[in-house]
Design goal:
The protein is α/β, with parallel strands linked by helices. 33% of the residues lie in helices and 24% in strands. The protein has 12 helices and 12 strands. The protein has an 8-stranded mixed β-sheet with strand order 6-7-8-3-9-10-12-11, with helices on both faces. A 4-stranded antiparallel β-sheet has the order 2-1-4-5, with helices on one face. Strand 9 and strand 10 form a beta hairpin. The two termini are 37 Å apart.
Length: 326
């Protein structure tokens, strides 16, 4: 197994109290596999990824439990110097806001080349050559000329391609892509997703794709893990999720996607708001918004029930949800 996250807990100390951002998250990714992690803003998707990468802001964030096994080693127990060597060469991250992630006062060529200078000991000239090759690889036109341009001189889609090139620079075994299509139009979204899928196949790397949009992962992901209030509430192969969701939250997310066969009908929306992470309700955290909620849901937190050997659901009434009764 390439990456295995086990019972991960992360909290933040705030003025309002302790925010439990990640509450026992567990998932696994193998080489050549794509796992999509889905959920609304604030569900803990990005915080989990930051904890895995070792870039969590501490303070106020703090990992309070669990393990992160990368190629068999628990990276949470490693010294910072060892974790720094893993970042970039072993695992890399594509951030959602490329303009903020890229340094505005350095050319993209210098920023790409720095990876090779620092990690591979290359000369600046050789690093520039590798930067051009990477820009070509992610299909940036006229890469030899544009390598001297600054981030603001590129479109949003091109900046995201530069971020992908930067993540690929040292050919890591795992890439975590955090909302890589945010703020891009639909056509560019499709191009970026196709590029990530192609590169995953070519390099045989594992890919963790973080998103709130079920529509962008249908043709890319192998498995989907759905998060709510810091927990995995459903985990299943992608086709099973779309065909028959086993959690009311997943069903609500699917129902809220615009569909051509529902033209003229009111778009479905999940009622209510996600809970405050400083005051997560007892029982199932989704019960205040759930059409299936009963008394047991208000008192007993459901475990991740085994629906079958390939999937799990954190719902007391997953059988009813699986058969479409709500």
């Amino acid at each position: 197994m390439l990456l295995e996250v086990r019972d991960l807990h992360v909290e933040f100390r705030t003025r309002e109290g302790i925010a439990r951002a990640v509450n026992g998250v567990g998932y696994a990714v193998d080489a050549g596999e794509t796992l999509a992690v889905l959920g609304e803003s604030g569900s803990g998707k990005s915080v989990t990824a930051q904890a895995v990468m070792g870039i969590l802001d501490t303070p106020p964030g703090r990992i309070t439990g669990g393990s992160v096994l990368f190629q068999g080693r628990d990276v949470l127990t490693l010294k910072e110097e060892e974790r720094r060597r893993i970042r970039g060469a072993g695992m890399a991250m594509i951030f959602q806001d490329a303009l903020s992630a890229l340094n505005p006062v350095h050319t993209v060529g210098d920023q790409l080349g720095e990876m090779f200078v620092v990690h591979r000991g290359m000369s600046r000239k050789d690093a520039r050559t590798r930067a051009i090759e990477l820009m070509d690889r992610v299909r940036i036109p006229a890469a030899r000329q544009r390598v001297r341009d600054y981030p603001h001189q590129f479109s949003g889609g091109m900046r995201q391609r530069i971020m992908i090139a930067m993540a690929l620079a040292l050919e890591p075994a795992l890439i975590i892509a955090d909302e890589p299509t945010t703020a891009l139009d639909v056509t560019v979204q499709a191009q970026v997703m196709d590029l990530l899928a192609e590169l995953r196949r070519e390099y045989g790397m594992g890919l963790v794709l973080i998103t709130h949009d079920l529509g962008v992962v249908a043709d890319v992901a192998d498995r989907i893990a759905v998060m709510y209030a810091g927990r995995i509430v459903e985990s299943a192969p992608v086709h099973d999720i779309y065909k028959s969701p086993a959690h009311p939250y997943t069903r609500g997310l699917l129902e809220s996607i615009p569909r051509l066969d529902r033209k003229g009908r009111r778009l479905y929306a999940i009622e209510g708001l996600p809970p405050s992470l400083t005051h997560i309700p007892p029982g199932c955290p989704f019960h205040p918004r759930c059409p299936l909620a009963r008394e047991v849901c208000r008192t007993d937190e459901p475990p991740l029930y085994e629906v079958d050997e390939r999937r799990g659901s954190a719902c007391h009434f997953w059988r009813e949800c699986l058969h479409g009764r709500s």
